[in-house]
Amino acid sequence: MDFQAIIPQLGPYISETVEKDPNICQKSLSEQFKKLLFDPLNKIRRTDVPDPSKALVLVIDALDECEGDGIVKRIIEFLGQLAGVDLNMRIFTTSRPEAPIKAGFEDLKRDHKDISLHNIQEPTIKDDISIFLRYEFEKIRKTRKLGSNWPRGGTIVTLADMTVPLFISAATLCRFIGDNRFSVHQRLENVLKFRNASFASKLDQTYRPIFGQILAGIDKLEEEELIRGFQEIVGTIILLESPLGLTSLSILLNIEEEQPHCRLDQFQSVINVSEDPRTPIQIYHLSFRDYLLDRNNHTD
């Protein structure tokens, strides 16, 4: 959330901090939090907000992906301190139920509410995913200049059934189907082929169409070469403790930079590769790593 866009008065306070201490971003996490977030927010009053009756919602996604249990615990402590500012603020975090995170919230001396996704009724989740799919498909339809009858009736319901309860599955399929380099109709058809696959787990239904698209129409030798390249490059990415950029990855693997670039270009719906070769390569969601490392998915 861009606080300054919602509360313009924050700008001068943050700018003043940076001017006084240009190296603030290299300081400790607690000092950054205090000087860049807590202190500026503490100087703002509810009357400074455009609509004081509406709550400001700070969303922190994938808290479990922060590096280090100690850092995660500190972040949770910081979030608790924000309850002391004079603003109508709510904080919404998402995370896997990792032990350090659960312990951090248990130690939090502030009221908080835990909601476990597996305790939410499936029809509710399906409705939310359906709304998301309709929104994303409408964007694809407009971008690709498709007819008003696209997608055909029942498609959203089918995709919602395939992906519930995993929003990441729905998001991944939308990126896969909407990729401007490929036919929307063909990619949607490839995804729908797996709707009745009894063997398919939710993640299998999400990721298998991606591999099917890449391997389609190539001979055995090309397939073997593609698989070797995938194991070397993508396998390294998902196992690294800290992500590397394209240049560093190429040096590590002792290969030309063009090779990982070509391989990863086919996986843009699941792997985020920046145009800057120095920027770390990131998988969009840890479920892709889990899927690749799950032996139950290695049936063919």
Automatic annotation (TrEMBL):
Domain Nephrocystin 3-like N-terminal: 7-96
InterPro entries for this protein: NPHP3-like_N
Taxonomic superkingdom: Eukaryota
Protein keywords: Repeat
Family matches, as Pfam families: NPHP3_N (PF24883)
Protein name per UniProt: Nephrocystin 3-like N-terminal domain-containing protein
